[in-house]
Structures are given as structure tokens and as C-alpha cells.
Amino acid sequence: MSEDTPKIIVGIDYGTTYSGISYVTSNAKSTDQIEIINSWPGSDEVPTRISYSAENPGHKSDKWGFTVSSSSISYSWTKLLLDGNTTLTEFDDPSLRDLFGQGMMRLPHHKTASQVCSDYMKALQEHMVQTLCKKFGNRLYDTTPIDLFLTVPAIWSDAAKNATREAARLAGFANRSFDTVTIISEPEAAALAALKPHLEINSLDPLQTGELVLICDCGGGTVDITTYRILSTAPVLEFEELNGVIGTGGKCGSTYIDRNFNCWMTKTFGAAYASLPPKRRGPGSAFMKSFEAAKRAFGSASAGQDDVEIDHLNMNAPLGPNYDPDEATVSLTWSQMKSFFDPVINEIIRLVGSQVDAANDAGHAISRIILVGGFGNSDYLNERMSVWCNQLSGNAAVVRGAAIRGLEGLCPKTRLACRHYGYSHSIFFCPGIDSESHSYVDQFSGAKMCRGRISWEVYKGQVIDAKTETSFELGLTCGRNEIPRGVVTLFACSRDSPPDHRSNLAAEKIGEVHVCFSSRDFEFADKRFNVSMGEDIYSLQVSVKMNMNAEEGVLSFKTFAYGKPAGDTTINYEQIEAGIPVQRP
After folding, report:
1. Is residue 531 helix, strand or coil?
2. What was the pLDDT predicted at 320?
3. 151 vs 16, which has greater pLDDT?
4. Among the CATH numbers 3.30.40, 2.60.34, 2.40.10, 2.60.40, which is that of 417-573?
5. CB 289: neighbour CB atoms within 10 A?
């Protein structure tokens, strides 16, 4: 199909706790035409939860989102298991597990994390198809290409990005030859949604060229922070990640307010509360829905807010200042409610402050801070942030930004590498430096070599643009009748100073790039007669080029031999669940 063929652009915000879908046609005249699916009960988002009929007697089919009952065996936060850099202990707070149940960060016996994520996304995909067919008609949907833009956390590993993309494909997204899937970071999508309103002619607070804008994406499980420089506002928005200031984040999303509330309830009412089954007090219960409504409405004491009442909780507790058994309500003072929010907001302010300080240390002054994400709508969070700084403004949905990316093709001109990238190879052995256990003799040159040394080709904090490529040099030796397969083992390191050898635990294996050659690739290879083997052997020098900023949002590779394209190149990512103490019920 030609580039002028009309398309349907879909944005998917696949979140830790909630997910959303947006869409727009490629011939739309304005981003105002972007629609967010809001057919969920009173919300633009749907819980990221799934339950399987095989584990829930009486269920005729698998359930997802709002259809998952609080009494079901279900699974949530599974997305976090896609990233091998996320350890379970970071989220394994007993009070979170008590509140969200045994399905949080756990897997069914018969499923991997990728499969559970794909099953959930399959339900999203079917709902999207139903919505689009209702909007455009079955015939038009069947013949119209879909460009899907799927958001992931900014700090996601490359394996996790690829796993998310493959899970989406397995779920049915882009299952037609003319459909595409592109991965974009959540802060980038948030930036697009947040910045666009400030480009309008009648904007009360228009963006200015040269401004530095900090985007704070406050989700359910995590908070991501990135700072951008505005390069141009007309005729189109151009921006870049601020050089020298690497994005940051933390586990301080809005669900930690739920955790603090759950701890208070357990401490205040003891077994009367703690012994209640999940269907009475867990996610999806009428009680927690009431608390969620109170949490969203919570604001300043100066606004004259009264005490907060949370209803729908029948428990064996006597009448007291915090509980009315006749009305089944829990009463909270404004100060008590505030105590659930403050530890979470304090951590968000600390993270934002560290980003502001990093910018100041680099000689830059941030002029605007924009809160986005579900928790970014909190009145109390906005008030606390406004007291802390006077640059606060705006709010926007990440899922809307994903559609903007597809409609207008906007993305940062430059990004910063959030980790080092390199590859393992052999170099001449250095006595006194290299370990004998890593040594061998090269059969082509006869030289003593050291295997497993890492050459770091991209450095943490390095500016990356659309043309950024790096080359991994590979030397292959083979006999006359051999057609070798080249393998480049990729590594990353999140520390400021990366190690020299792959045996160091700080070297994180990304995966292996495999290159399958043909006989024509050896046209210019060096040849030498090997006496001990009694035959000619060949030495082929190849360059594996890695694109750090591919349009699809994942790493891409091409191989060249003596300046010409050579071989077929694929990457096999390291098993992403390896090293994670995945718990199964």
C-alpha cells in the first residue's frame, strides 16, 4: 500500500495497573479528532487484570479488566515481569501483596509472563476491533491498515521492549501484512499530549523556543521523569531530551496510597479487617471502589473538605470514631487521609527535585513542570507540587500522546542513552591483566588471544539521534567447506563505569545477534593455508551495525562485509524472565 493510503492510528497505553486505547484516522485535520475509548464503566481506562476459567470453577470463559471479580484467582502487575532488570523484591511489599492478592507479580502454572501479557492484550485487541468496526464498519476496517503505537516505561530493557512488541503481535495486533507495531516510551507519549495544548494560537501559556520542560508521568505502579528542550514550536513542534540530564523514575505510583491505607486499616481494626476475604476488601470490591473515588476527590484542607467516608465494608468491629457498623462505613479525618498521600508525594517531589538539580548542575534552568498520568490528576498532588515550585502546569493522557505520535510523526530529535551498550569479543592477550582462563590461540594468526573482553560502543548519557549507529566488528575463521554463522553477544550496563570483561556481574547480557552467511560473502575474504589442517582456511571480517533509534522503537541490525551487505541478521534476546524469582501460586 502507498504512503497516501488512509490508515487508522491506534495508541495503546499498556499500564501496570490500568490500560487505555486511543484512535484517530491518518487524514484527521487536528489532534482534537483523537478519540479515547471510554466504554469501560465510567472510565477511560480498564484494570490490567486477567483471570482464567481453568482456575476459577464456574467461569465459562476467561475474564479481564472490570469483568474480573474480586473473589477470582487473577493476575495483575504481570507487565513488570517482562523486564529482567525488575526484581520481584522491589515490589514485594507484604502490604501490597495483602491488598492486591496473591496474583500480583505471580503467574499461573501453565503460563509465562509473556503469555499472560499477550492474553490480556488479546482482550484489548478484540475490544479495539469491536469499537473500530462499530465506528467505521466491518468492510472498511478489514481493508484499512492499522499503525499501532504501544507505550512502555522509559527505563525498560531492550529485551522487555521487544517482548512487549511480540506479545502485542501474538495478541493479534498487526496480524495483517499491512499493519505495524511501534514501541514508544511513556514519557515521550506523555510529552506529546502535554505539550500540544500549549502550541495553540489562543493558548494562555504558550510554549517558547528554548524552554526546558520536565514531564512527570505519575502512574499506578511507577513514576517516570524526563526533561526536554523545546527546539521549535512552528511550523511543527520539535524537541529533544536535555543533554546531560538522564531521565529518572521510581516505584511511587498511586497504588502505594492504597498500600498505606491498607496498613492503616490493618493496624486500626486488626483481624476484623485482615481476616476479610479479597472480594470484600481487595481491588474491584465495592469498598476499594469507594476508597478510589475518595482518593480521586481528595484535595486541600483550605477547600473546606470534610472528613472522608468509605462505605461498603461489613466487618465484625464495634461502633467507634472510625467505624459505623450500622452504615458499614469507615470514617477518616482529612489528616488521616493526608497521611496516606504524603509519603508517596514526598518521594515524587524528591525525584523531581533530583532532576531539577541535575539540570541546574549542567547549567540549565527548567521553566515548566507538567504532571501527566492518572495520578497526575490528583488535586492534592498538584497542590503539594505547586507549593514546592511555581512552574507547574497541565495534565494529559499518555494514551492520547501515543496517537499524536502516529498522526503527526512527532518524536524527540535526540534522546539520551540510559545505559552503556557494547559487545563481547577477543583481543590480544595481555599478560598480568587478562586471566589465563580466558586465553586461547587463534588458528588463523597463531596469536594468543583473550576471549570475553567487552568493547563499549555507546555510553550512558550519549546523545542519540535518527542517524546514530554503532558497529560491532567480527572476525570469522573457517575451512573451505564451511559456511559459518557469526554471533555477536550484546551487553549493557547501567552503572556509570562499565566493566572490561563479560564475567563481571555488572555486564547485563542483552542477547545474541546471529548472522547466517552464504558462499558469496567470502568473495573478498583473506585466505591462508593451514599446514596442520592441510587445507585453506578463510578469515572474514564483518561489521554488524546496530541502529539505536529505529522507527519501530526496538534495536535493529544489518551486517556488512567489505562494504557490502552480507548475511541475514537476527537477534535472540536473553530470556527476559531469567534471574527473576517469579512466584507461582
Report:
1. coil
2. 93
3. 151
4. 2.60.34
5. 16
